[in-house]
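Hi all, long-time lurker, first post. I run a small reading group and we've been trying to get comfortable going from sequence to structure in the token notation. Rather than ask abstract questions, I figured I'd post a concrete chain and ask someone more experienced to write out its structure so we can walk through it together at our next meeting. Sequence below, copied exactly:
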Amino acid sequence: MRISRALLPEPSWRTAVIALLIVSLLVPVVVGSAFFFPYVVPRNLFFRAFVEVGVAALVLALCFGQRTLDLHDEPIFWSLVLFLAVATLSALFSPARTHSFFGDFERMGGVWAWLHLVLFFLLLRTLRDEDWGWVLNAALAVGLFVSVSTIVEHSQLASATHATDTIVAASSSTIGNSGLLAAYLLMNIALAGYLASTNLRFRLLYVAGGGMILLALIYAENRSSIIGLALGAMVGGVIFATLSTASRKRWIAPAVAMILAAGIAGISAGIRAYPTSGVTRHVPTVLQRFALTNPDGPDESRTMQWRAAIDGFRDRPLLGYGLENHNLVWSAHFNPGIYKIDTDIYDRTHNQFLEVLSTAGLVGAVAFLGIWLAIAVTLVRAYRAGRLSGPALAVLSGLQIAYATYLFFWFVDLNSTMLWILIAALIASRGTVGSVVLEKSGDAEGAVARPWLAFASLVGLAAALYGEGYTPLRASQALARIDSHSGALDQTLSEFEVLANSRTRQTAHTPMIMSQFVGSLRPRLREAQSDSSERRMLDRAFAESFAVFAREIHRDTLNDRLYTHEAGLLSEAALFYGSESYQQQAIDALHRAIDLSPHRIEQRLALAGIYSRRRDYERAIVVLSDAVKSDPQLGQPRFSLAQAYIGAGQSDSALAMLESALSLGYVGAPETYLSMGKRLEFSGRNTAAARLYSDYLEAKYTEAVWDRSETIDRPIPTADIAVAAHLPLLYMRVSESELAIKTAAALSAFDPTRATIVDRFVSDVGSRRRGNWVARISLLPCTTARAIRSKDPIALGACGVFRRKL
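-- Answer (accepted) --
Happy to help. Here is the structure in token form:
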């Protein structure tokens, strides 16, 4: 099939730019498994490389020929430039300047990312009206591919989920994150709507494509995008009805939008009222999640970040902490309540407007809102100029509302923000006539060539591709190999040298990954000391890791997690070299981390661990007492404090801390409970010991452990089997027959094959025949341990637990 030449752009520099723009739209399907953060790094480097080549092509076109760049009437472009300038100024005064400029491998954001988005906008503005069809349809085609992938993934997940009351997991498709996928699909729904409103011939085809994308959006199960879609549809419908004064059907669109919003609200109210009804199970999962949203429950992690962002704004109200530095804001205003809800590591506010306020300050927030204002002004101007129809205006305006709503709960990401910039450039092209590149007609006589500028652009392109393309690419691959450490030790450690000598700037995770790998070698460190070749490799690995930590801490002096991970590496070095100096440096690093984030408990736990290993239990108790005070509702610091009390010989305090930790739902290592219980038994406090064992088993396995009809369907540690077999006898000794009978059920729950022994014990206790059990330490046949050594190793191991010394 031959394509008419009339349909193709005339081969020129503009053709090259169009081709580069179309290729850059493949970003959402670019994934590299060999990269650290494979859904982020390769696609950002891919996008930036093609934008940089496109800008170089534009500069070359301007350097040779009668072409000029006319940007005097481009409010959206200048609003983007203003935000970029403010972000740059904020980064210059940021406490983590490099991170603010270049971000890290997890996000690939910062000033450098926004610079490429601005350049992307500029390239899009070089398009003529007849060129836009190629770019818009290419973007929609990629969106349809991602949508089909999402639907297929949902079908596979649904097929794998056999239980009718089990919620199907959200689809993430090629994006890797369902929330970020939702924003990308939201943009594609707007693209389909715009193309349907401007192309009567293929309208039904575009509408069908939009429907498919909407289905994929539902399967992404993102509440923010659904709310945004409903609000955007209502605003767009009202605009359409207001402008379509000649049509009697003008109220159909807003009515449909209102019905959609009312349906979402009504279904959500019904789910809240009847969460276990049969109808609820057939409602889309995203509506179930929307209905069960609880800002005071699981969703409180978002509002915690919002409050931290507001506090961060108060710290630095003018220019903020610098883009990409919400992690510093969160560390400074850390809320330990996050431990009961979610991960304690946050690098995003999950509210783009508040994030800009805290990271770019008031000036940055005003500049960011200025972009939205410029888009609104240009939309109005385009409609008044007759270059934008009422339906198109309604679609594009509704998209801005929808995306702003989404960003109130999420953040900018290349996949969706790229399309937002594309649509902003489309709006700008409707606001003025033609491209920003003006080409004079007639002879080229009088044209001024700029060879030096052309040469400089090529040099700049080469430097950007190598310095900010190839260099981070190589570093990301090295990090991925260390993180997976699937090869030989010498091969993995050779990547340390690559990272130590790399000039890449996205290095926030680099020293942490290196430190974690060295920590994973602890079991073989003793062997490595006697192997000269391995010792040399580890010497070099330690030296290179310390050098990378020093470099990164110099770049990011307020990052408490860097000091915490450095302390971990220093502790490993102290163990490997037997050096007290390294141990003291680890203590100093942890103190620095505590000063930077006084409410985060990891560094306090690590510091107390060092003191406990040095048998300095007094200092460990002081540190852990402060950790408990940070949030009295956390169980982990109480458990660690109990361990320190045990080491210090303060049994009563240790018992109180263990019981309070269990009451808060935290269950630590069974060895600690065994140690405490044995101490209590040795001192004659059998009732207290029995209560501790009982609380431990119930907290770990729920009350089902006392129900003989239940079976605990997970691996049971030998120590827990030992406790379950010992506990009934302990209650029997203190004349608590009912509790002895009740707790004997735990052994059956752990191992149904022990039911015969449990039945005999229950029968004997109930008949007051206790003589057979008084001298035993376990329901298991421990007296014949040697005889059962070969055929019952579980019983042998459990019997040995209570024979060992304290």
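A couple of things your group might point at:
The mean pLDDT is 90.
The chain is about 65% helix and 0% strand.
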